[in-house]
């Protein structure tokens, strides 16, 4: 119930903003707006003002703006409020205003977020510097080593780790171009991005298993707590100690340490520890344990303090620039997904419908702080804006495309032709909606459990 309420609120906001864009542009050009509705179905409440019925309908998913003359077959007499009596360029702007409103919403949300006190992981947005590269992972065969910087990944120059993780999830089981800087020299090679699971299940953990281990922090690992009777406690490790190196190798994250210990099994390791500004050497023997999937791993018997990250409180101009970069990156990611769908390089199973959106919103709302939720809402708004710009009838992009065709030939398409186009498009949209909802259902935990 909580997830459903969150979905209604978020989608309601997206739709209201989108439809307000159409509404405002229509009013600007003098088009009569007959109704501005939140939801579909029977009217529950509302007010009538200035010839417009502002209404709340029974079904709280979506909404619409009804303009005079927008449906095929409606007369276009001399009524100046009729949409069809306005120049095509005005109709294009009215149609385009909805997606633009979604982009503006995302831009404003992220601008405000960047102006406030925001914690970010510096490694995800900076250069893609590697931590320990395990010899047992696929990436090791490329020659990539600890401390190298990835300078090219598939089609992306100078990628961040966020770019790599996002892009890799779109192109599993494919050979990609890989370049990295090693000892001041650029090395060019290829890498087969193998992944046995479904593409939509690819995540950061999947990348780690391929050997793509980011250097998550520049400072040493700091001990937060020790396991009573564990090997580290017996060796003399204390809380707040900083682990400068492991066998003289500077390891900066627990995932990297996990892979290092896995490569060296139960061999004793030499820890260089910083304590009270003094360096100490401790010998610790890893202890074997079994994970839930039967995998044997080796641990040193301590937990690490999480990365402190960076706190940003950007000025207005810097916030605008950061918000632009966020919007641009997410827009290009959506375009990349659509392109790869058309090229059959990624599966339609990557697409999510209302259930998937609801889960994303729910997880973001449950995450610490408010930034994950704001970023998720902004991303959804960008996705909605781009989706509506697709040149498909019924969608805004399709309406613009038809207006451009009519403008090119300097004549309107017949009412009968438009009706046939809209009917066919409506069937396609319904089938598409059924497909993405089916995708959502197949990803639900109880369905995955039945499959296994």
Q: What do these coordinates show?
A:
- The chain contains 13 helices and 16 strands.
- It is α+β, with helices and mostly antiparallel strands.
- It has 3 domains: 191 residues, no CATH class; 87 residues, PDZ domain (Pdz3 Domain, Roll); 88 residues, PDZ domain (Pdz3 Domain).
- Strands 4, 5, 6, 7 and 8 form a 5-stranded antiparallel beta sheet that branches. Strands 12-11-10-9-15 form a 5-stranded antiparallel beta sheet. Strands 1-2 form a two-stranded antiparallel ribbon.
- It starts with a helix and ends with a helix.
- The relative contact order is 0.12.
Provide the fold topology.
Elements: H1 2-28, E1 33-49, E2 52-67, H2 88-115, E3 118-120, H3 122-125, E4 128-129, E5 149-153, E6 156-157, H4 161-168, E7 174-182, E8 185-193, H5 204-210, E9 221-226, H6 231-235, E10 242-246, H7 254-264, E11 269-275, E12 278-284, E13 287-290, E14 296-299, E15 302-304, E16 310-312, H8 316-342, H9 354-366, H10 371-388, H11 396-409, H12 415-442, H13 445-451
How many alpha or pi helices?
Answer: 13
Strand content: 15-25%
Mean pLDDT: 84
What is the CA-atom radius of gyration, in angstroms?
A: 27 Å
Q: Helical residue percent?
A: 40-55%
As for the number of domains, it is 3
- Describe the sheet with the most strands: 5 strands, antiparallel
The chain-level structural class is alpha+beta
The CA-CA distance between the termini, in Å, is: 27 Å
Shape: elongated
Q: What series of H and E elements makes up the topology?
A: HEEHEHEEEHEEHEHEHEEEEEEHHHHHH
């Amino acid at each position: 119930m909580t997830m459903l309420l969150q979905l209604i609120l978020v989608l309601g906001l997206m739709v209201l903003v989108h439809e307000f864009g159409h509404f405002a542009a229509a009013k600007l050009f003098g088009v009569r707006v007959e109704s501005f509705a939140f939801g579909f179905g029977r009217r529950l409440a509302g007010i009538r003002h200035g010839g417009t019925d502002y209404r709340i309908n029974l079904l709280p998913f979506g909404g619409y703006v009804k303009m005079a003359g927008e449906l095929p077959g409606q007369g276009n007499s001399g009524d100046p409020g009729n949409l069809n009596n306005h120049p095509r360029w005005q109709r294009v702007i009215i149609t385009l205003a909805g997606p633009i409103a979604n982009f503006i919403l995302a831009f404003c949300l992220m601008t405000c977020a960047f102006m406030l006190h925001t914690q970010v992981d510096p490694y995800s947005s900076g250069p893609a510097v590697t931590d320990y590269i395990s010899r047992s992972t696929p990436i090791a065969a490329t020659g990539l080593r600890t401390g190298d910087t990835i300078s090219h990944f598939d089609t992306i120059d100078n990628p961040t780790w966020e770019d790599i993780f996002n892009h890799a999830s779109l192109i599993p089981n494919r050979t990609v171009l890989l370049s990295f800087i090693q000892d001041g020299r650029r090395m060019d090679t290829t890498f087969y991005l193998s992944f046995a699971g479904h593409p939509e299940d690819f995540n950061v953990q999947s990348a780690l298993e391929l050997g793509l281990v980011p250097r998550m922090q520049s400072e040493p690992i700091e001990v937060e707590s020790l396991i009573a009777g564990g090997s580290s406690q017996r060796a003399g490790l204390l809380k707040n100690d900083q682990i400068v190196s492991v066998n003289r190798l500077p390891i900066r994250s627990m995932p990297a340490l996990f892979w290092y210990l896995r490569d060296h099994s139960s061999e004793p390791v030499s820890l260089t520890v910083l304590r009270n500004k003094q360096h100490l050497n401790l010998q610790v023997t890893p202890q074997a344990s079994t994970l839930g999937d039967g995998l044997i791993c080796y641990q040193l018997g301590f937990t690490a303090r999480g990365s402190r990250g960076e706190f940003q409180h950007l000025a207005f101009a810097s916030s605008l620039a950061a918000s632009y970069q966020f919007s641009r990156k997410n827009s290009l990611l959506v375009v990349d997904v659509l392109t790869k769908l058309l090229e059959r390089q990624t599966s339609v199973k990557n697409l999510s419908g209302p259930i998937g959106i609801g889960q994303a919103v729910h997880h973001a709302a449950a995450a610490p702080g408010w930034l994950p939720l704001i970023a998720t809402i902004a991303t959804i708004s960008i996705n909605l804006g781009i989706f509506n710009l697709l040149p498909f009838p019924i969608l805004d992009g399709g309406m613009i495309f038809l207006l451009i065709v009519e403008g090119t030939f300097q004549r309107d398409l017949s009412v009968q032709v438009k009706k046939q186009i809209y009917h066919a498009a409506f069937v396609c949209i319904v089938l598409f909606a059924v497909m993405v909802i089916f995708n959502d259902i197949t990803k639900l935990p109880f369905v995955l459990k039945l499959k296994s």
